[in-house]
Amino acid sequence: MNDAFRRNILELGGRQGAAWLDSIPELVRELENRWCFRSLEPFENLSYGYAAPGVKPNGQQVVLKLAFRPAADGNEPAALRHMAGPGVVRLLESDPGLGAMLLERIRPGTTLASLWSPERDDEATRIAARAMKQLWRPPESAEFEPIERWASAFDRALDTPAHPLPRGLMERARSTMLDLTQSSGPRVLIHGDLQHYNLLLGRAGDWVVIDPKGVLAEPEAEVGPLLRNPLWPPVAAFDFPVMLDRRLDLLAEELGFERGRLRKWAFVSCALSAAWSAQDHGDGWELSLRCAELLDG
Fold first, then answer.
1. What is the DSSP string of 236-276?
2. Measured over all CA atoms, what is the biggest interatomic distance in the chain, rounded to whole angstroms?
3. Could you read off the pLDDT of 239-262 as tens digits, one per residue?
4. Distances (CA, A) of 72 to 88, 99, 110, 159
């Protein structure tokens, strides 16, 4: 496991995080026996969850995922079952109590982010928009939470006197979210974090969605994560505000949604990302905040 992964979990969970890290080898052995696969060395780019490739006796390639906070990440198995079909990674096994999943492995598995360049941004935006449209369908049960519950991140920011984020922006983001949810159109289960790092290239040249959060909202609420990704260092050399406007134009065209409403949801999403980063780590919120500032108003 890489140092960044260990550091992230320790920042999030302290002693509990350390205990969870120490438990991973035993947990992997337990799941290998239960789900009949052999786990290999974990992926190098772990961030906040454990993931390792594996293989079943019949040669099928799989991926084991473990979440440190099962309660926070527990919607993913249910979301994958609800979204199951073309363009979505297949869930093979799950244990929500352990925060464990066994998934099919997408090969070659190249992320849309790794193929991204300023010259290909329009193409990437259209690919993501098509992936969005494949996912959305009405919920079949009440097991998914409404997006309004995410507003608690704004409440925590506003209730913390020394919070690093601008109070006025947090207030506007919370108010905008309230206005949007009160005037919401029909709700579907959205991915909640559909962006360039969560789209993988499959063998047939198709794009496959991974890592859904699974939250109930009108479809317009899906676009925010795409607008603030890939992470800014690759795009720092050119005019990011221009790229934001261009992406909004393309998404409105591809999805058939009103551009102004997409912009408002994107503002809320970027402000939420900044609030979550400040809450979990105390830093790393600057780029999401900058994106929110560009979309504000």
1. TTS-HHHHHHHHHHHHHHHHT--HHHHHHHHHHHHHHHHHH
2. 57
3. 788 889 999 999 999 999 999 999
4. 21, 9, 27, 21
d(CA 220, CA 212): 16
Write down the pTM of the prediction: 0.92
Q: Which amino acid is present at 190?
A: I
Please give the pLDDT value at position 87: 95
Phi, psi (rounded to 5 degrees) for 207: -105, 130
Whether the predicted pLDDT of 238 surpasses 80 = no
Rounded Cα gap, residues 66 and 100, in angstroms: 5
Beta bridge partners of 65: 51, 101
| Backbone phi and psi for residue 18, each to the nearest 5 degrees, phi listed first | -65, -40
66 bridge partner residues: 50, 100
pLDDT tens digits, one per residue of 91-121: 999 998 899 999 999 999 999 999 988 889 9
- Given the candidates 3.20.20.10, 2.60.40.10, 3.30.450.70, 3.30.200.20, the CATH classification of the domain at 3-105 is 3.30.200.20
Q: What SS3 state is found at 207?
A: strand
Structure tokens at 272: 């939420």
* 3-state SS assignment for residue 183: coil
CB neighbourhood size of 282 (10 A) = 10
Q: Which helix (H) or strand (E) holds 24?
A: helix 3-35
CA distance 201 to 235: 22
Contact of 46 with 30, CB cutoff 8 Å: no
- Among residues of the chain, what percentage have pLDDT more than 90? 72
Domain made up of 110-295: CATH architecture:
Alpha-Beta Complex (3.90)
Residue 58, pLDDT > 60, answer yes
